[in-house]
Design brief:
With about 350 residues, the chain is α/β, with parallel strands linked by helices. It is built from 15 helices and 9 strands.
Length: about 350
């Protein structure tokens, strides 16, 4: 296996950590497949029948579609042949009891609570922790989390930089850019660029130190501010959001995309680097598994390419493209036509 392939598999092991627990919870607590088999349903009907919230339900349906246990037939979801064989009562190959033998895992009960309430669990399922967004306001957690994401970014950032063509651009704004690891790599590849990282306290202080360590203090600055409540600085012709939008619900994503469109220069480029579900929400399986982790620990999920295109278009962006990068990630670019 190549180094890139090994990295990809290790990332998947981490990112898929809660996916099987969701399947156990759905089988054991909701009798999901038997109920869906009896009454094929669209998303809203399913939420009403099972008394679950729409965001986590959407993630669950995408995950089960990726496993080929369910599929869409018209506007409704139905159980596939595989799903009927392995999770329907009366089937000789019914595995429900086998999965239910792990139902007493505490995390399975908490997953059911997320499905019911749409409220995230504590980060990494820590009994003393807080949900991710609140925990990031604490210096100790923010420092350890930023360092953890840098270990991933040190490999992903050069790949992202290699996928972009920034020769005709001058100033990049790295929105919620953490340590600035992605903007550092892009500026390294494109010496014509200057950049700024927009981050709130206490991550802004960490970003300044990291940028100095990378040797880019003369080319990359740090702007202290909250991407939601602060005005975004003008004069930038690239906006970068790397692993940002997946932490937030659709309403918040739309808000951020509108802020980008309103503040970016004419002919400016927005760059969204993330894990994306395919347009039909049937996979890839690794992306659907990661979306489960996000569903449980943040207010967001992995958005589909179709969802991102719709939200970007609604914000005013055009010329939208998507291309793969590494480790199940992809980059979506769009322009504010001048």
């Amino acid at each position: 296996m190549t180094e890139a392939g090994f990295f990809k598999e290790l990332i998947r092991r981490r990112d898929s950590i809660f996916a099987t627990d969701l399947l156990i919870s759905a089988v054991g607590y909701m009798d999901f497949f038997n109920r869906l088999n009896e009454e094929p349903s669209d998303l809203k009907s399913l939420c009403r029948n099972l008394k679950i919230a729409e965001r986590p339900a959407d993630v669950m349906l995408t995950f089960f579609s990726s496993l080929q246990l369910i599929k869409k037939h018209g506007s409704k979801y139905i159980v596939t042949e595989h799903g009927r064989r392995f999770f329907i009562k009366g089937s000789k190959s019914d595995l429900s009891g086998y999965f239910n033998s792990l139902l007493e895992r505490p995390v399975c009960r908490d997953i059911l609570n997320v499905l019911r309430t749409d409220s995230p669990m504590n980060w990494a399922y820590s009994p003393k922790g807080k949900e991710w967004a609140r925990a990031m306001s604490k210096k100790k957690f923010a420092g350890s989390f930023t360092a953890a994401m840098d270990s991933r970014g040190s490999i992903m950032a050069p790949v992202l930089a290699g996928k972009l063509d920034c020769n005709d651009y001058n100033k990049l704004l790295d929105i919620a850019g953490a340590s600035g690891i992605y903007s550092c790599e892009i500026v390294r590849r494109y010496p014509n660029l200057r950049a700024a990282v927009l981050e709130k306290n206490p991550v802004d202080i960490m970003a300044k130190k990291a940028i100095i360590q990378q040797g880019f203090s003369k080319k990359i600055s740090v702007i202290s501010g909250d991407m939601f409540s602060s005005a975004w600085p003008k004069g930038f012709d690239i906006h970068l959001m790397s692993h940002v939008l997946h932490d937030w619900d659709a309403k918040s994503v739309r808000f951020l995309l509108r802020k980008s469109y309103e503040s970016i220069m004419p002919d400016g480029l927005i760059v969204i680097h993330d894990v994306h579900i395919n347009g039909k929400k049937t996979g890839p399986l690794a992306a659907a598994e990661y979306s489960v982790l996000l569903m449980l620990s943040t207010r967001g999920k992995c958005y589909s390419v179709a969802e991102m295109k719709d939200m970007l278009s609604d914000a005013g962006f055009a010329d939208i493209h998507c291309m793969p990068t590494t480790a199940f990630r992809s980059v979506i670019t769009a322009r504010k036509l001048g």
